[in-house]
Amino acid sequence: MAIVNATDQTFAAETSTGVTLVDFWAPWCGPCRMIAPVLEEIDQEMGDKVKIVKVNVDENQETAGKFGVMSIPTLLVFKNGEAVDKTIGYQPKEALVSLLNKHL
Question: Is 92 assigned a catalytic role?
Answer without folding.
Answer: no
